[in-house]
Amino acid sequence: MDGSSSMAQKTALIVYAHQSSASFNAAARDASVQELKNQGFKVIVSDLYEMNFRASATQDDIIGDLKKPEHFQYGDETMLAWKEGRLSEDIVAEQRKVEEAELIIFQFPLWWFSVPGIMKGWIDRVLTQGFAFTLQKMYDNGGFKGKKAMLSFTTGATQTMFQPDGLNGDVNVVLWPLQNGVLRFCGFQVLAPQIFWAPAHSPLEVRTAMLEGWRARLKGLLAEEPLTFVPTQMFDLSFKGGFKLWPKVKEDQESEPYGFTTGHHLGKRLPPDNQLKAQATKQK
């Protein structure tokens, strides 16, 4: 029997959102699948458009009676349904993929500074309360802290347009809600994003180089250090304390030229490229 090798096999999940198989996103997805398989990964792809994945979070996501039908509260009802095994089959199928995967890559075109609606629906419906987080298990206490996740996406705009002095503003600010508010909130170790800048406006040789760079990165992806966030122990995690940084922590930061992160900037300058690359800092 070769049970030991099968047990050791790692699993990667690619949550993919693009309508066209001829798109650059499809090429990036295919590169991920091929390279990860070459490394011995089992690769699962959730092609959301192909699956006709339902984006709307409604009471149809719950099988059986509602706890409070007179006032439907999606979070409460889905958490109870998750505990009792009464979530809809499409949600359960995706949750099983998440449970199996050590690595999750979200592959998509950046729309309106965020993910396409069908992928937002995946986030809303699959990462249910109880399964993905609780008030006790979130951020670096989250249930997925043993897993890694990252964003891989294309832009319509050039890189210069997403700089602090560019027309669209600092891309680090754009990425904070997705990387901190979704991925890290659920406990994931967040790897630096893979950004393909304006492939539709790039010549063939540039697009080819983009894909080759992605393939090269994939070879060492799991060895990368994740992005840096402020540890939860630096906060007073009580309603009385307002879930704010401990005063002593803020005092210790007074002389620092930059804030902790893009979000926890403390009124200071944003730390450069905080949401773009792992940085060696004193926060672990």
From TrEMBL:
One of its GO terms (cellular component) is cytosol. It comes from the Eukaryota. Residues 11-217 form the Flavodoxin-like fold domain. The keyword DNA-binding does not apply. Pfam families: Flavodoxin_2. GO terms for biological process: cellular response to xenobiotic stimulus. It is found in: Cytoplasm. Its main location: cytoplasm. InterPro entries: Flavodoxin_fold, Flavoprotein-like_sf, NAD(P)H_dehydrogenase_qn. The keyword rRNA processing does not apply. Its cofactor is FAD; Zn(2+). Residues 256-284 are annotated as: Disordered. It catalyses: 1-(beta-D-ribofuranosyl)-1,4-dihydronicotinamide + a quinone + H(+) = beta-nicotinamide D-riboside + a quinol. Its EC number is 1.10.5.1. Homodimer. The enzyme apparently serves as a quinone reductase in connection with conjugation reactions of hydroquinones involved in detoxification pathways as well as in biosynthetic processes such as the vitamin K-dependent gamma-carboxylation of glutamate residues in prothrombin synthesis. This is Ribosyldihydronicotinamide dehydrogenase [quinone]. It comes from Betta splendens (Siamese fighting fish). The lineage of its organism: Eukaryota, Metazoa, Chordata, Craniata, Vertebrata.
